[in-house]
Amino acid sequence: MKMAISVLQVANRSHRRLMNSPPQTNTTDGAGSQKKSSSSAMPIMVSILVVVIVGALIYCIYCWRWRRRNAVRRAQIENLGPISSSDLSVIDLSTIEAATDNFSEDKKLGEGGFGPVYRAVLRGGQEVAVKRLSTKSRQGNVEFKNEVQLIAKLQHRNLVRLLGCCVERDEKLLIYEYLPNRSLDAFLFDPSRRSQLDWRRRYVIVVGVARGLLYLHEDSMLRVIHRDLKASNVLLDNRMNPKISDFGMAKIFEGEDHEVNTGKVVGTYGYVAPEYAMQGTFSVKSDVFSFGVLLLEILSGERNGGSHVQRHGQTLLRHAWELWDDDRASEFVDPSLGDCYPTNEASRCFHVGLLCVQENPEDRPTISSVLVMLKSEQMPLPPPNEPPSFTRLRTTPDSRKSSAARSDSPTMHSLNQVTVTSIDPR
To answer: For the chain, what is the domain count?
Structure first.
């Protein structure tokens, strides 16, 4: 508005100069010249006034939109609600800026749909991973609120620990424990690093992830459905123990509800259960399906996604089913393991994986049954039914690239993001 007023003042001063200017003495028709001068000044004044009015309107609209955006941001922060210090530490922005060298590129571990992730060292010498909400993130505010209110209440050795958060100025930051070995997919799908995952480590990862899911589904104070379990969301500590991460899309079940129908499907292609992808219905059995996919990936060392379809003409699940049907299960095991693995244990894992990815959710076992099946050699296993068939991927306009597609980068640590996916059945 100040700019518009200044322009109007300039215009008024110009008008006064034109009106107060003395008549020319060297003309024979002074009155006629003055009349012509006045008449020629009118269009100029009208033009100036039009420009000023239009500029003022544009400036007012800009100010209104700017204030509205700020009001929306303030409302998003206020909607987070009070954060109890007993649940989660609130860390000053200045402390995080100092620990990350003001979010230096040298400290950057990677970037996902939520935003970039930085390695930081706090004043006491503790290493942490700082996840910074990007201003371009569409779902970041929802994810931030979900993780702050959810993860702080969940404590388990197979879940990543959220140490603190920061909501200051326009910044929203999540501070996690730092896991130096990054995510599982950085090892599992990298030919040069896959050999570091011998059978014993793979089995420990499978059981650890199952225990983490059991805690979420049955043992925690909240009944939680993760909805985005995948290799890139399983982080590894310095002893290669697994920790489930990224609870931005997790949902809490209330009362005795067993399933929920939602109009918006989130997840990652290759891991999403068919009933969720096609009908929007998710339950604990949806997480079991994702776990089954992850188990088969750990066993084979291959990703269940578009790259596998391009190479083999079918999904990893269909390939596993054909080998099962032909009684050639041993061919499914990752060749990099050689003969250095117990065949009975691998065969049982293969069988359990196929039970988890059955098309009908009622046929799938619960995660507690999965743990018993994995640990007990005496427990008889029922024969699995055929897994679902997916023909092509169609992403929605709101979808973002999966972190799994970028996690082969050596600078990646853990990127927590979501790929919104629609899947067409055959």
So the answer is: 2
Place of tokens 């309107």: 57
pLDDT at residue 258, rounded to an integer:
56
Instruction: Identify whether residues 241 and 96 lie together within a single domain.
Output: no
Instruction: Say yes or no to pLDDT of 366 above 80.
Output: yes
CB 358 within 8 A of CB 288: no
pLDDT at residue 168, rounded to an integer:
86
Which domain CATH number covers 118?
3.30.200.20
Please pick, among 87, 101, 228, 327, the residue that the annotation labels catalytic: 228
Amino acid letter, residue 341: Y
Tell me which amino acid residue 180 is: P
228 is catalytic: yes
Quick check: pTM over 0.85? no
Q: Cα-Cα-Cα-Cα dihedral of 275, 279, 283, 287, to 10°?
A: 50
Which of 335, 329, 368 has the alpha carbon at shortest distance from 349? 329
Shared-domain flag, residues 167 and 196: no
Domain of 231, in residue numbers: 185-425
Count of CB atoms situated within 10 Å of the CB of 10 = 12
Choosing from 177, 211, 235, the residue where a domain stops is: 177
Residue 246 labelled as part of a binding site: yes
Answer yes or no: is 158 a known binding residue: no
- Token reading at 277: 């992808």
Does some domain include residue 329? Answer: yes
Residue % of the chain over a pLDDT of 90: 41
Q: How does pLDDT run across 167-204, given as a tens digit for each residue?
A: 888 888 999 999 989 899 999 999 999 999 999 999 99
Chain centroid to CA 284: 20
Mean pLDDT of 289-315: 86
- Does residue 128 share a domain with residue 200? no
CA distances from 284 to 27, 53, 114, 253, 367 (A): 96, 61, 25, 10, 8
* 203 and 265 together in one domain: yes
